[in-house]
Amino acid sequence: MRNRQSSKGFSRRTLLAAATAGVAAAGLSAAPVQAAADDRDKALKRVISGMSLEEKVGQLFVMRVYGHSATAPDQADIDANLKEIGVRTAAELIDKYKLGGIIYFAWAHNVRDPHQIADLSNGIQQAGLRQPSRIPLLIATDQEHGIVCRVGKPATLFPGAMALGAGGSHSDARKAGQIAGAELRSVGIVQDYAPDADVNVNPANPVIGVRSFGADPQAVAAMVAAQVKGYQSAGIASTAKHFPGHGDTATDSHTGLPVITHTREQWEQLDKPSFEAAIAAGIDSIMTAHIVVPALDPAEDPATLSRPILTGILREQLGYDGVVVTDSLGMEGVRTKYGDERVPVLALKAGVDQLLNPPTLAVSWNAVLNAVRSGELTEERLDESILRILRLKAKLGLFKEPYVTHRGVDRTVGTAAHLAAADRIAERTTTLLVNKEGLLPLSPRTHKNVLVLGANPASPSLSDGPPTTVIGAALTELGFAATVLPTGTAPSQAVVAQAVAAAQGKDAVVIGTYNVGAGSAQQSLVNAVAATGVPVVTLSMRNPYDVAQLASSDAHLAAYSWIDVELRAAVRVLAGEAEPRGKLPVPVQKAGDPTQVLYPIGYGLTY
Fold first, then answer.
1. Is 6 exposed, middle or buried (0-12, 13-18, 19+ CB in 10 A)?
2. In this structure, is residue 604 part of a structural domain?
3. Distance between CA atoms of 24 and 12, rounded to whole angstroms?
4. Is the dihedral of CA 343, 346, 350, 356 positive or negative?
5. What's the superkingdom here (predicted)?
6. How many whole angstroms separate alpha carbon 86 and alpha carbon 99?
């Protein structure tokens, strides 16, 4: 088959012909998703028995690759692939390593626009079906929404987990997952590394935070279950992460190895419920955490490499027999104790099925291959994981129809109905925490001239501009006269002085804050502007904990993210176009005294 992509995408005839060939070659013409489980497994085991050892090893890996096209990426991406992986293109990567999956990243230039993503996905599937065993790939990404999104506009972007936790609606969580899943599936992404099932009980957590639904284990469990059902109802594989629970860490596992000192009883009460709920909801895959939990594994191996945790607890205690995928093997948390050659082998021995994004694929792939040849791993052990992976591919219908079309993209991605649903859901998440003397809602009649200050932690594909610009535009649309002056996350004294001068004569000042700590320059900015006597409204654009450091603000809203849909919703609440309905899903401790709770879980003001 020629690997040809046009501006209109693959023709329907070409797609169906290739799909049929892949099904027939795999011996799955009886449509395994409709067959009884035992018949399905027999068919899949026949496929496995015909695979070479190299194909089996490849099937366990999910790898990054640079480029917008499977066969014709830009030269800079070819150069990056050659440097990091030793191949030129995604198609060459699959040809060489017989991969089971690919992960998309924005920084790898995989996700320019929906039609391009669909064509890339089709090219990747073509490359997979060209291999001797003709097995389609699991194409995955991290699309949690909120602060973690790989596929940006014109895709519909939803509030993230903590915002949904503030909204408290299981229906909204499920709806967001269903729409997000449908849009991903339309561009060929079939495995989403979401939702985050961690219970964020540590305000200083540098890597989870608003990616979690909250700090109450039972509330988080219910939201996780709702999102799993939403995603998977759209025909994609959902992934609960990060087992056994990453919510109480003060170290980022990307850069170090966190240690969680919970007792076994604390783990049972705090971290276990959300993963149990995900399993009960039929979760397709679970991602491991690069964390040490001595109470669960006295050997103090990272959970990703821990047989007591992954086999003893996840497989045997919780009864999970779905796909287990590692967090990225390029993260320092999993590389601190063992070298890159040992990590993939130990992960498989622990009970992992998919090995995600190793730093050097050749090293990891050959390590697994050599471990089988030496007898440290058996082919039977590989076959166990491959069967789980192929079951998932069959469930997703990839053997029957691995391809997508531009027409499907156009009728699914970023539709007016989807965007309207995101706006409605976002409005129900905005949380009003402070409203001195009933300052809010503001009205253009009484507070016409508004100055917008603050941080701009924007991701270009996720917004129409920097957050302060988005806030200013939203205010202007509602009849205010907004002036925008970005001040950043660490405004200098000169910038603070400029902001104070700009506040003169204004009717109100709105300041977007981002992770404000004690003694932060953002805190100094808010204090200085408040000292002018102009009413100050602060809007936390990530962690709701900011409010504890901003005693001088007259009103405070928590938006939980800087993406447009959440900022626009917060502005509508600020202006009284929508009611503040969100309730804190985490407690906010008093500044300087974490033993005292300033605002408890469930706190939230209304008009």
1. exposed
2. no
3. 18
4. positive
5. Bacteria
6. 14
Where residue 238 sits, what CATH number does that domain have? 3.20.20.300
The rounded percent of the chain whose pLDDT value lies above 90 is 89
Tokens 């087992």 belong to 243
| Domain CATH for 529 | 3.40.50.1700
Q: Which neighbouring-strand residues pair with 481?
A: 449
Boundary of a domain, candidates 410, 439, 459: 410
Number of domains observed in the structure of the chain: 2
Measured between alpha carbons, how far apart are the two ends of the chain, in Å?
63
pTM of this structure: 0.92
* Contact indicator for 538, 511 with CB cutoff of 8 Å: yes
Query: pLDDT band at 578, cuts 50/70/90?
Result: very high
Instruction: Find the angle CA(556)-CA(559)-CA(564) to the nearest 5 degrees.
Output: 130
Q: At what angle do helices 361-374 and 343-350 cross, to 10 degrees?
A: 60
Question: Which residues participate in catalysis according to the annotation?
Answer: 254, 327
Q: What would the two tokens of residue 457 be?
A: 């932690």
What is the per-residue pLDDT across 3-37, written as a single tens digit (0 to 9) for each?
Answer: 333 333 444 333 334 333 444 444 454 444 444 78
* Amino acid (one-letter) located at 561: S
- Helix, strand or coil for residue 287? strand
139: which DSSP letter?
E
Name which of 75-84, 245-254, 382-391, 489-498 the model is least confident about.
245-254
pLDDT in tens, 322-337: 999 999 999 999 999 9
- Do 580 and 483 fall within a single domain? yes
Distances (CA, A) of 220 to 168, 211, 303: 10, 11, 21
Q: Which two tokens stand for residue 512?
A: 């977007």
472 and 499 Cβ atoms separated by less than 8 Å: no
Nearest residue to 113 (alpha-carbon basis) of 403, 416, 409: 409
Provide the angle, in degrees to the nearest 10, between the axes of the packed helices 170-186 and 217-233. Answer: 40
3-state secondary structure 424-467: HHHHCCCEEEEEHHHCCCCCCCCCCEEEEEECCCCCHHHCCCCH
Instruction: Decide if 329 contacts 373 (C-beta within 8 A).
Output: no
Asked if 464 and 520 count as a contact pair (C-beta separation under 8 A), the reply is no
Cβ atoms of residues 150 and 142 within 8 Å: yes
Question: Which of residues 340, 375, 410 is at a domain's end?
Answer: 410
Q: Please write the tens of the pLDDT for every residue from 234-252.
A: 999 999 999 999 999 988 8
Tell me if residue 594 falls in helix, strand or coil: strand
pLDDT of 60 strictly over 50: yes
Give the structural domain span for 548: 430-599
Q: 132 in helix, strand or coil?
A: coil
- Residue with tokens 């609440």, as numbered in its chain: 573
Q: Is 229 within 8 Å of 284 (Cβ atoms)?
A: no
User: What is the C-alpha separation between 529 and 534, in angstroms, rounded?
Assistant: 7
Picking from 332, 337, 363, the residue whose alpha carbon sits closest to that of residue 350 is 337
Residue 515 Ramachandran class (φ > 0 left, ψ -120 to 50 alpha, else beta): left
Residues 201 and 450: beta-carbon distance below 8 Å: no
Distant-in-sequence contacts of 581-584, Cβ < 8 A, 24+ apart: 581/167, 581/427, 581/428, 581/429, 581/430, 581/606, 582/163, 582/166, 582/167, 582/168, 582/428, 582/429, 582/430, 582/431, 582/432, 582/558, 583/166, 583/168, 583/431, 584/166, 584/431, 584/433, 584/544, 584/558
